[in-house]
């Protein structure tokens, strides 16, 4: 495995009752590069992400993150290894505040277990109070990073749609990931929000986190990606730079509607 290979996937397949949602995919990602995964609806993109993050078990193949096998691990174990994600459909705790949503993500990195956190809340020990102060400071820093610090005490359900997307990103970042999977982060966004998201992806990259996107918005994809991977019917049909993908005849035929 090359020294700069960050995520390596070998022969990854996932079958659902005979349907090949993902079929024999090989892929390598380099640390620090923005990779976008594109393809028609039903191409297997979200299933591919689900396999990487342990949401579903692969039918075949291996997934290595930083040279360690992660396929077969549970989602919380993969998160602990440094892989986080957002979802195609927003999954916030709508009745909790913006800050509380990020705190939930941060507790995966807390020095306290859930039981210890509960007991600490009852006892209010000095060590627990210090940990809580540090956790809140990290959460507020992340809200500042995504532009939501002024809305930290608002219920998440009161945020504009684009802001809810940004909150999901902040919550995922709260676990201190090294690899951040974003499943259609621009879905439902207006042009202004999409442009702001492009800037945010660049800031995430500069922060030392490697972004890996599923996205249909081609302006966003072409604007932020170092490499693009194209799926069609569960198989990888192309991989390359934005310029290479734009000129690829197979991609044009399968995805962009060319003849």
Q: How would you portray this structure in words?
A:
With 259 residues, this protein is α/β, with parallel strands linked by helices. The chain has two domains: 1-82 and 180-258, Rossmann fold (3-Layer(aba) Sandwich), CATH 3.40.50.300; 91-176, P-loop containing nucleotide triphosphate hydrolases (Rossmann fold), CATH 3.40.50. It has helices spanning 45-52, 75-81, 98-106, 114-123, 126-146, 161-173, 191-206, 218-224, 242-247, 249-254; strands at residues 5-16, 19-30, 35-38, 60-65, 68-69, 83-85, 179-183, 210-214, 227-232, 235-240. It has a six-stranded mixed beta sheet, sandwiched between helices. It has a four-stranded antiparallel beta sheet with strand order 2-1-4-5, covered by helices on one side. β7 (179-183), α7 (191-206) and β8 form a beta-alpha-beta unit. It is globular. The two termini are 38 Å apart. The mean pLDDT is 89.
Describe the SSE topology.
Elements: E1 5-16, E2 19-30, E3 35-38, H1 45-52, E4 60-65, E5 68-69, H2 75-81, E6 83-85, H3 98-106, H4 114-123, H5 126-146, H6 161-173, E7 179-183, H7 191-206, E8 210-214, H8 218-224, E9 227-232, E10 235-240, H9 242-247, H10 249-254
Parallel strand pairs: 3-8, 3-9, 6-7, 7-8
Antiparallel strand pairs: 1-2, 1-4, 4-5, 9-10
Helix pairs in contact: 3-5, 3-6, 5-6
